[in-house]
Every structure is written in structure tokens, then in C-alpha cells.
Design a protein that fits this description.
Elements (H helix, E strand, L loop, with lengths): L21 H36 L11 H22 L5 E3 L10 E5 L6 H9 L2 E5 L6 H9 L3 E3 L4 H4 L2 H9 L8 E4 L24 E7 L4 H4 L8 H10 L6 E4 L7 H5 L1 H16 L8 H12 L11 H8 L3 H14 L9 H8 L4 H11 L9 H12 L5 H12 L8 H9 L8 H15 L9 H10 L2 H11 L29
Parallel strand pairs: 1-7, 2-5, 2-6, 3-4, 3-5
Antiparallel strand pairs: 6-7
Helix pairs in contact: 1-2, 1-4, 1-8, 11-13, 17-21, 18-19, 19-20
Length: 510
């Protein structure tokens, strides 16, 4: 059995909704009439000037080049004041600083959090300054490429596992370059949450094993305006509302330098988790194991008509235990959505029975009970994944069982027809099935196997069915060996044993 995890401190950190008190509504209404027009005009003037000055600072340089002393002087004397003026017109009338930034020699890496809006990079670059660890997509567009060059950003590729493996090389190359005199800054969460909790910290900025200084961005009561995440308001709405506020508070807190232990130097994940906990305590907010992949699944869930919370399974915790890739998780979410006909992200035994069309009710109830380890009488997507992986691994003799069941189902032509299905169902204990039940089940099998016609199922169709709906293997095992044959494997799979990862890949062999 795959190890279960306790419920996360926050179920859906990638969902954000705007809610205001009557006093805040009044403030925004007055600001929309008085402040908004003035600030828009001011930003129309100052923002292009600021971007042009930054462009001049990096002119003649390419992505990855070092700025010359003259370029850096221009950046600090011209571009930085203009940037601060833009922040002023944006509503940040003043910015508070708490603590002291450690020198580069003491803490070469700065970890910034929470990452809740697209403005965070501008705040970090314009108010703190450092070479940020950023995704390569920023270098693909003209406007953001200007910022990449002038900010001397360290570009990393996150498009594949092989590319992500090179992050450590990029970090070490930066830290070991004697010409670099700036801090390496990183938003360790790697994506935007709602700012009400800290998402799982990525390993990249901790791979070098050097001391880091956590830097917390605290927007106070204005956090709800600054937040922009996967399931939230459009970024333009947050920008306009911020322009309507008289003042948007921002406190930049330099926390104590975190010196890694020997164990943390060897294990970047442990290092990242401990720094995340320190920052969460300083900000007085919870921390979770949700990652960027949770956000992707949340968006997929919304596309399928489910609430975004269906996809937030806390990938940083459960994905290593499940052994499923991002594509496999998306495929299973699509199947979960098909079972959950009412689209409330909560599957009942009745919905499961309807989806599988399996007429042996005690089998369906037993299957549901194996999924529902919390006895909640409803399954979340997370419950569904753990139960599915457990059940598919409870069939140790898959190929043998598949062959035996196919022999029982197939007719003299070697295809699965209604009479074979009926005979198989009638072999179940206390089964009360009819020809109509067999007809309905065969029709469902055709759908799940991808068959477009009303013909009988071939051997390939049957194999396709079991790849797409491996739960039937458990039903077949109960029919072949008796209902008490499950569970076969009850050993707990530790999360930290990658060689024993439980996955559905064995059930997807072509």
C-alpha cells in the first residue's frame, strides 16, 4: 500500500477571490474617480521612459553578458530612480525595510517569497537588486529581454527533466564567477500562489549548499490585490484596483542568514524545506508541498468542469510516492472528471457504479471502500490516485489474469461478446445479473477501449480497455480467485525509495 499523507495545511493555494469590506469599497470608489486618472497619465509618461533607460543600460549586451561599470552606473543613477518613481505612481508611496541585507561574501544567495504576483520580480529587481534566477521564456520576448539583460538575470530552462538537471551548473557558474559581485536572487516557489501560504520551495537555489538569506515580501492588507494565480482574477483587475488605493503597503524583511548543516549541503530538498519553514514562521502563514504542477492540474480541472481544488493534490508530497508523471496525472484527472458526473470534485459509490457499469454491487462497494480509506463516503482526486495505484499493484499476475479472463469471455471467433460477458458475471457470488446488464457493460467497454463501432471486442480492444480502466483487473481477480483475494500486497512504500515507486506505467504497456 502506498503511504498516505495527512491533509495539507491549505487545500487550494492557487485560488484567489477578491473580497472587500464596505470601507474598502468606498476607498476604491473614491480612488477610481480621483487617483486612477492621474496615476494612469503619470505611468503613461514614466513607464516608457523607465523601460527606455533600462534598454540603454543594456544596449550592446546580450543575454548572459556582464554589464560594464559604465552600464551599471547608468542603471543605478538613472534607471533605478525612474523605477522607484513608477512604483510611487503605482501606489507604493513608501516602502519599509526591516533587517539588514548580508554582504555578498556572507550570503551569496537571496531567497525571496512569497511569489504571489507578476510585479514581484520588479519589486525585487528595482528595490533590492540582484541577479535573479529566471526561466528562459523571459529572454524570448523583446520587453522582458531588456530586463533580463540589464538585470543580469541567470536564465534556466525548465522545459524538460534534462534541462532542469542543468540548473545546478548555472547556479554554480554564477557563484564561482569572480566578476559577479551581485547576489543571486530566486523566488524559490517557482510559481505564483495566492500569497496566503508558501508553496513548496524548488531545489535550484539551494543546490550549491551555500548560506542563503531569506527575504520576505509583506504586502499586509493589500495582499489580496497583489495576488495573481492560476484560479483568480485577471492581472489587469488587480493592477487597476491597486491604482485606486491611496497607498499599497510593502515591507521588505531581511531575515537572518541561514547557514546549512552538512546534511542540508548534501540534500538540497531538505535545505529548501527548512528555509521554507523558517520563512513561513516569520510571515505567520502556513507552508505546503504544493508546486507549479498543482497549478497546472488546477487549470486542467477547471477545463474539465471541476473546481480548481480538484487538481491541487500537493504534488511535492504525493507525486514521488505515486510515481506518476505530469501527463499521467492529467490523464487520471480526466478520468476522475468523467466519473464525477456532478462536477463537485467528490466521487460517490453511486457515480463509480454508473461509470464502470459493473452490475456486481458488492464488488463496486469493495472497490470504493479500498479507495475511501478515510471513510468519508466520497473520494477526492487525491484519494482516487492513491487507491488506483494501490489496486493496480494488488494484481501481481496481471498478464496471466488478463489471458485467463479473455479466454473466459471470448467466443469461438476469439472476440468478446455479450454471452461471454454474461457468463463471466454469473460466476460471481450472489450475483443477480441479466442480459441487459451484460449488454450495458459491453457497451461501456467499447467506449473505454476507444472502439467506434458496435462490434465485439478484439484482443487488442480488451488490452486497451484494461490500460484505460485498470480497476476492471481487480474485478476480474475477484471473479477468478474469489472476493477475499484482495489485498495481495499490503507493504507500505516509503516515499524515499525511488526504486520501489508504484506507478501505473506497468498497466499502460502497449
Amino acid at each position: 500500500m502506498v503511504r498516505r499523507f495527512p491533509e495539507p495545511a491549505v487545500w487550494n493555494p492557487v485560488r484567489h477571490r477578491l473580497q472587500f469590506t464596505p470601507l474598502e469599497i468606498l476607498e476604491l470608489a473614491i480612488g477610481a474617480v480621483t487617483l486612477l486618472p492621474i496615476r494612469i497619465v503619470c505611468l503613461i509618461i514614466t513607464w516608457p521612459l523607465t523601460m527606455f533607460s533600462i534598454y540603454l543600460a543594456g544596449i550592446g549586451s546580450r543575454v548572459g553578458d556582464r554589464l560594464s561599470p559604465l552600464q551599471r552606473l547608468w542603471l543605478f543613477k538613472v534607471s533605478t530612480p525612474l523605477t522607484r518613481l513608477c512604483f510611487f505612481f503605482f501606489g507604493f508611496l513608501w516602502v519599509k525595510y526591516k533587517g539588514k541585507r548580508a554582504p555578498h561574501q556572507e550570503a551569496p544567495v537571496n531567497v525571496v517569497a512569497p511569489h504571489a504576483s507578476p510585479h514581484d520580480g520588479m519589486f525585487a529587481g528595482g528595490l533590492i537588486y540582484g541577479s535573479m534566477l529566471s526561466c528562459k521564456e523571459l529572454a524570448d520576448h523583446f520587453v522582458t529581454r531588456i530586463l533580463v539583460i540589464a538585470g543580469e538575470l541567470v536564465i534556466v530552462d525548465r522545459s524538460s527533466a534534462e534541462a532542469r538537471a542543468k540548473v545546478k551548473d548555472a547556479v554554480l557558474a554564477f557563484l564561482q564567477d569572480p566578476t559577479r559581485q551581485t547576489h543571486l536572487m530566486a523566488f524559490a516557489e517557482g510559481t505564483c500562489g495566492n500569497g496566503e501560504s508558501l508553496l513548496c520551495f524548488r531545489r535550484g537555489s539551494f543546490l550549491a549548499g551555500v548560506p542563503v538569506q531569506p527575504i520576505a515580501l509583506d504586502f499586509g492588507s493589500a495582499q489580496k490585490l497583489a495576488s495573481w494565480t492560476f484560479d483568480g482574477n485577471h492581472v489587469a483587475i488587480g493592477v487597476l484596483l491597486q491604482l485606486c488605493r491611496l497607498h499599497t503597503p510593502l515591507t521588505i524583511r531581511f531575515l537572518d542568514v541561514y547557514y546549512p548543516s552538512e546534511a542540508e549541503k548534501e540534500d538540497a530538498t531538505l535545505f529548501a524545506d527548512n528555509v521554507q519553514a523558517v520563512m513561513a514562521r516569520a510571515l505567520n502563514i502556513p507552508h505546503t508541498r504544493h508546486t507549479y504542477e498543482d497549478g497546472v492540474l488546477a487549470m486542467k480541472a477547471m477545463e474539465l468542469g471541476l473546481p480548481s481544488s480538484a487538481g491541487t493534490i500537493e504534488c511535492g508530497a504525493v507525486k514521488p510516492a505515486l510515481g506518476l508523471s505530469g501527463d499521467e496525472l492529467a490523464d487520471q484527472l480526466k478520468r476522475f472528471a468523467a466519473i464525477n458526473t456532478v462536477k463537485d470534485a467528490s466521487v460517490t459509490v453511486e457515480q463509480m457504479a454508473s461509470y464502470f457499469a459493473w452490475p456486481v454491487q458488492q464488488h463496486v462497494q469493495s472497490l470504493f471502500n479500498e479507495y475511501d480509506t478515510g471513510h468519508c463516503k466520497a473520494l477526492t482526486f487525491r484519494d482516487f490516485l492513491f487507491g488506483l495505484v494501490d489496486l493496480t499493484h494488488a494484481v501481481p499476475n496481471r498478464e496471466e489474469l488478463e489471458s485467463k479472463i479473455y479466454e473466459r469471455l471470448s467466443n469461438e471467433k476469439g472476440a468478446v461478446d455479450r454471452s461471454g460477458v454474461l457468463q463471466l458475471l454469473e460466476s460471481a457470488d450472489n450475483a443477480d445479473v441479466s442480459g441487459e446488464d451484460a449488454h450495458t457493460l459491453l457497451a461501456r467497454w467499447r467506449t473505454l477501449s476507444g472502439q467506434k463501432t458496435e462490434s465485439d471486442l478484439s484482443r487488442d480492444d480488451f488490452a486497451s480497455l484494461l490500460r484505460h480502466a485498470p480497476e476492471y483487473l481487480v474485478f476480474f481477480q475477484w471473479l477468478q480467485y474469489g472476493h477475499s483475494s484482495y489485498p495481495v500486497d499490503t507493504a507500505v512504500t516509503p516515499v524515499d525509495e525511488p526504486d520501489r515507486r508504484r506507478s501505473l506505467k506497468s498497466s499502460k504497456k502497449e
